[in-house]
Design goal:
Chain B: Its EC number is 3.5.2.3. The complex is a heterodimer of chains A (312) and B (429). Chain A is an alpha/beta fold and 312 residues long. Chain A has 13 helices and 9 strands. In chain A, helix 4 crosses helix 5. Chain B has 429 residues and is of the alpha/beta class. In chain B, helix 6 links the parallel strand 11 and strand 12. The chains are: A alpha/beta (312), B alpha/beta (429). Chains A and B meet through helix 5 of A and helix 6 of B. The structure holds zinc ion (ZN).
């Protein structure tokens, strides 16, 4: 199996084989992160730009470290939000980076479809680091990697995604990835935060948390944004927490060995109880490590690798 | 100059008949309609196997002049109309400045008389600046030549304001053309609400955002007695509401666009900004309902909502692109390919929706070919095919989702006041 795509825009279009290739490639990459000297010459002489039109220290530093561990040259560009609002500059910015000889552009952008748009105009590889409410493929890949690492396989697992499904690109990418790998995906949240017809993406829809958690192997807890309450999409954090907060008592409904995931940063005490977040089933910190590994794998594959195969 | 249109099938959309007749055009009027006319001096136009129709009128176009001439202007817009088989267009007032005073209406009429390839009928604004706050001087607009009133592009959100608009316009005998969209329900949406929007991560506009306003405006029309015309209805629910209102005698008419009877929301896949339009492209069941509404007469008019935007405006991330697509040059082809050939509309019924019905709504004469009448004529060849090529379009803007579509059934003559402006798919002006 060889990697053939120019870009990574989302999980919707990836094949099972492609997803597995990324996850398999991330295994040796994770090993590098565990070393004392975290540096391989793999991407020496290659350049990676992180182009972020939205703040995200987490995702950005994860990509940055991933590139550095592979010896790529990296620069970060934070684009002014005013030019974004006018929608003028993305194409030109892309062409400029291209003219500077950039190999990979990692794009975070508030508009859905922005990564696909940019990828049309630049020969460089584009990695979607989150576009609007569309996809966040690297987050989903690190979730898949974490689940696979802990459970051995994803096939047949029941995974429950809890929270603001409507605005979550993490949820969308997870649904594509998990269902492709054979998991049953449930989404649960208030009706006002549930996008219409999401069952057509292959997820089962719940508004009752207890029903949704019944017998699941994995709970993926999404961050709830206070902003949504201000938009009148739910009445209060208090009520949200009462209906959809993940606490110890509710975990009783899941399988005894169920994993707890959260893309971070957490609102402790709102969508997730601290006891759960730091409890024995939580893999939230490992997700962060795995995020770097998965991103190393992607940078490696998208820049051609040695032979497009797994490094040993 | 005399023209003799021979061997065509003359369409009478008012009586829904077709007959083989020759038409002699002399000094801008129809001199004679009969079989086998002989006229030595006349230039012969052979219309064998073609439909000879009264000149088509598109009652919903945006010519963008004054103010946005980089998108389109009266000259380019009317050339596109002529190419599309339209002998007349009614243009919406969302220009800059808004056509909310007699001065702007006069300007459009004067420019059109000088530069227009076809007739232009301006539509005035309902409220000053189309802001929904104050009535325009409607009598003045009417005196200047406005044929109807609309705040198209912007709904009048305040029901009390719309009530007064209809009372006042009704008093003056002017039709109110309503853009039905409840902004609180449409809020920030950039395509139809549903599975495709969910998948693409785009905020959706639900059907009910249109239907709530259709229902409201129908009730206001019923209460005030004002003639109400609903622009670009797009949902099954809207069609049902109009059907019910007509059945109980409300003075309501409705239009549908070629894109709403030809395309579904799936045209947006790949973040195609040329398929970003308001109201958005809907689901298959809505497309079917619009087609059924056209078939059973619930929808009176086919209008294009020709909305040109410059390439750079559409060449952006999807949520930032403006709404709208061009339609003048593809309308007839879509009507024939999507409605006439599949048997949804007969030719006279289709022509009525493109010709006599809009004139009735705008209180304009014409819409029928009769001896002594003005020679505004469109000829359509139902067998002629063309592949849509943006490079060949007359419109300044090229924002069409129908690129590479093969359309069969195209206009081959557009004649205004006895003068051909388009013939054999070539502009003559
Ligand atoms: Zn409109």
């Amino acid at each position: 199996m060889y990697w053939q795509r120019k870009d990574l825009l989302g999980l919707k279009d990836l094949t099972v084989e492609e997803i597995n290739l990324i996850l398999d490639t991330a295994v040796p990459m994770k090993e590098i992160i565990g070393r004392k000297i975290k540096k391989t010459p793999t991407l020496r002489g290659r350049s990676v730009v992180t182009l972020f039109y939205e703040n995200s220290t987490r995702t950005r530093s994860s990509f940055d470290l991933a590139a550095k561990y592979l010896s790529a040259d990296t620069i970060g560009l934070a684009a002014a939000s005013s030019s974004v609002a006018k929608g003028e500059s993305l194409r030109d910015t892309g062409l400029t980076l291209n003219a500077m000889g950039v190999d990979v552009v990692v794009l975070r952008h508030p508009a859905s479809g922005a990564a696909e748009y940019l990828a049309r105009y630049v020969p460089a590889a584009v990695i979607n680091a989150g576009d609007g409410t569309h996809e966040h493929p690297t987050q989903a890949l690190l979730d898949l990697f974490t689940i696979r690492e802990k459970k051995g396989s994803i096939t047949g697992l029941k995974v429950c995604i809890v929270g603001d499904i409507m605005h979550s690109r993490v949820a969308r990418s997870n649904i594509w990835g998990l269902t492709k790998l054979g998991a049953e995906v449930r989404v649960v949240g208030p009706a006002t935060l549930m996008p219409p017809d999401i069952e057509q993406m292959g997820a089962k829809v719940y508004t009752d948390l207890a029903q949704a958690l019944e017998g699941v192997d994995v709970v993926n807890v999404l961050r709830i944004q206070l902003e949504r309450q201000q938009q009148g999409l739910f009445p209060s954090l208090r009520e949200y927490s009462r209906l959809y907060g993940i606490n110890q008592a509710r975990l009783e409904l899941t399988k005894p060995d169920a994993l707890i995931l959260h893309p971070g940063p957490m609102n402790r005490g709102v969508e997730i109880d601290p006891q759960v977040a730091y409890g024995s089933r939580s893999v939230i910190n490992e997700q962060v490590t795995n995020g770097v590994a998965v991103r190393m794998a992607l940078l490696y594959l998208l820049t051609g690798g040695e032979y497009n195969a797994i490094p040993h | 100059m005399q023209y003799l249109i021979k061997n065509g099938l003359v369409v009478d959309p008012v009586n829904e008949t077709m007959s083989e007749l020759d038409i002699l055009v002399k000094d801008g009027v129809i001199a004679e309609m009969a079989q086998n006319i002989q006229a030595e001096e006349a230039i012969i136009i052979d219309a064998k196997d073609c439909y000879v129709c009264p000149g088509l009128l598109d009652m919903h176009v945006h010519l963008r002049e004054p103010g946005y001439e980089y998108k389109e202007d009266i000259e380019s817009g009317t050339r596109a109309a002529a190419m599309g088989g339209f002998t007349a267009v009614a243009c919406m007032p969302n220009t800059n400045p808004v056509a909310d005073t007699a001065a702007v209406i006069n300007h459009i009429i004067e420019r059109s008389a000088r530069l227009g390839a076809v007739r232009v009928y301006p539509i005035g604004a309902l409220t000053k600046g189309s802001l929904g706050k104050e009535l325009t001087e409607m009598a003045d607009l009417k005196a200047a030549g406005a044929v109807a009133l609309s705040d198209d592009g912007q709904p009048v959100m305040d029901a009390g304001m719309m009530y007064r608009v209809m009372q006042y316009a009704g008093m003056l005998g002017l039709t109110v053309v309503s853009h039905c969209e409840d902004l609180s329900l449409a809020a920030g949406g950039s395509m139809n609400e549903g599975a495709v929007a969910t998948m693409l991560g785009l905020k959706g506009i639900p059907n009910v955002a249109e239907e709530v306003m259709v229902a409201r405006d129908i009730l206001l029309a019923e209460s005030t007695g004002c003639a109400l015309h609903l622009a670009h209805i797009s949902t099954a629910g809207s069609v049902r509401l109009v059907r019910q209102a007509k059945a109980r005698g409300v003075r309501v008419t409705a239009e549908a666009t070629p894109h709403h009877f030809s395309l579904t929301e799936e045209a947006v896949l790949g973040y195609n900004t040329n398929a970003k339009v308001n109201p958005p492209l809907r689901r298959q069941e809505d497309v079917a309902a619009v087609q059924e509404g056209l078939r059973d007469g619930t929808i009176d008019v086919i209008a294009t909502d020709h909305a040109p935007h410059a390439y750079h405006e559409k060449d952006v991330e999807f949520p930032y692109a403006p709404n709208g697509l061009i339609g003048l040059e593809t309308a007839v082809g879509l009507v024939f390919s999507q409605l006439v050939q599949p048997g949804i509309l007969t030719v006279p019924k289709a022509i009525a929706k493109l010709c006599s019905n809009p004139r009735k709504i705008l209180n304009l004469p014409g819409g029928q070919l009769i001896p002594g009448g003005v020679a505004d004529i469109t000829i359509i060849d139902p067998e002629l095919s063309e592949v849509v090529d943006p490079a060949k379009l007359q419109s300044k803007s090229k924002n069409t989702p129908f690129v590479r579509w093969k359309l069969t059934g195209l206009p081959t003559l557009t004649m205004v006041a006895g003068q051909p402006v388009m013939q054999a798919r070539r502009l003559l002006k």
